[in-house]
């Protein structure tokens, strides 16, 4: 379901030379003996997820879909990005479906928060507040505003419209949910935020958006099976992980994830969190960047083509578009576009990709890795998540870094709390 092609001429080391290290780290990951082994619950998740809870997610989603025009998801980082990425990828950017899914709790921007509150004021609203720690300030600030709004609007019924996804026992959010009688879903202890889209964190909002979460789990399982063998000739996720390391050894410190689909741009944000938070430690790591082509060929394309040679591109191609359009003929041809008459717009997109590849690789000397995903379906989303989870864990373990913590994100919080006067 995901194929990797590399422009081998750029790789100065042989991918297979890493086989021994990859086999060792694969064993450690599967046996929960790797660095950060407290957070590898996602590895076996396709086989171990709680079926009862999964059924309850579907029931709750159906209930929420009946009740609201707007479903407000309140969370940040791993408690936000995956759900939004999935919904945009699978449903598209103008799905015009009910309920509309809106995100808050992911910023301190007063303008954004005020505008969301204004937007939902006269609509039927349900809320999903998501926080593993239950103490994240962006989320807590927005949720207090939302809670007061819901209590005022729905009085006693507010609790029927609010769902909390949090730790099974710890944290302020758990205490609030218990006290108020909200329905709750559990974020497993051994799955970190950026790996949590495959748990209720992502699955509830995704199901409320009308997406088939059974298909996501079946994609996840398929990837688990396809990636069981650590042989670099067969395991595309590990081969991708190794290519990144080789390219960084050659001095490429930036990876640009490129898609030719605008509805994949939040996937790139999710991917940036996954790789950036996992790898950027101890003065090591590749900076994850992203672009959407051909849109950004009219901006960043110039840098990629002729700028400083710091980056390689990973092209995430979609084999089959969700929809296609045949370009019409025009009798007058005033715009001189008849050379495309009868052609599919996706074909034009693919030709743009091919032309760009030649320009960046052959003329620009920019290494390109190409990952091809079958389509933008729910099943492909599940497959892709698991593919990137495994690739990310392997590429970071190859650096001898713990892929599952994020100690650096605490520094800004400490300073902010001091400035805010928090005890
Ligand atoms: O990857 C992570 O763990 C983080 O990005 C968290 O997801 C993010 O900080 C939100 O944390 P929480 O779910 O505890 O509110």
What structural keywords apply?
10 strands, 15 helices, coiled coil, globular, glucose-6-phosphate isomerase activity, binds 5-phosphoarabinonic acid, 2 domains, 423 residues, alpha/beta, cytoplasm, Glucose-6-phosphate isomerase, Rossmann fold, gluconeogenesis, five-stranded mixed β-sheet
Describe the structure.
With 423 residues, this protein is of the alpha/beta class. The chain has 2 domains: 2-33 and 218-397, 3-Layer(aba) Sandwich (Rossmann fold), CATH 3.40.50.10490; 45-211, Rossmann fold, CATH 3.40.50. It contains 15 helices and 10 strands. Strand 7, helix 11 and strand 8 (287-292) form a beta-alpha-beta unit. Helix 10 (236-249) packs across helix 14. The chain binds 5-phosphoarabinonic acid (PA5). Its EC number is 5.3.1.9. This is Glucose-6-phosphate isomerase. It is found in: Cytoplasm.
Low-pLDDT segments, ≥5 res: none
Structural classification = alpha/beta
* Total of DSSP H or I helical runs spanning 4+ residues: 15
Compressed to H and E, one letter per element, the order equals EHHHEHEHEHEHEHHHEHEHEHEHH
Q: How big a fraction of the residues is strand?
A: 5-15%
CATH superfamily of the largest domain: Glucose-6-phosphate isomerase like protein, domain 1
Mind telling me the C-alpha Rg?
Answer: 22 Å
Task: Give the overall shape, derived from the CA principal axes.
Answer: globular
The CATH level-2 architecture of the largest domain is identified as 3-Layer(aba) Sandwich
**Termini Cα gap:** 50 Å
**What is the CATH topology descriptor of the largest domain?**
Rossmann fold
Number of strand elements:
10
Major sheet strand order: 1-10-9-7-8
- Biggest beta sheet summary: 5 strands, mixed
CATH domain class of the largest domain: Alpha Beta
Count of folded domains: 2
Give helix % range. 40-55%
The unique ligands bound to this protein are: 5-phosphoarabinonic acid
Organism: Amedibacillus dolichus
Function: Catalyzes the reversible isomerization of glucose-6-phosphate to fructose-6-phosphate.
Protein name: Glucose-6-phosphate isomerase
Pfam families: PGI
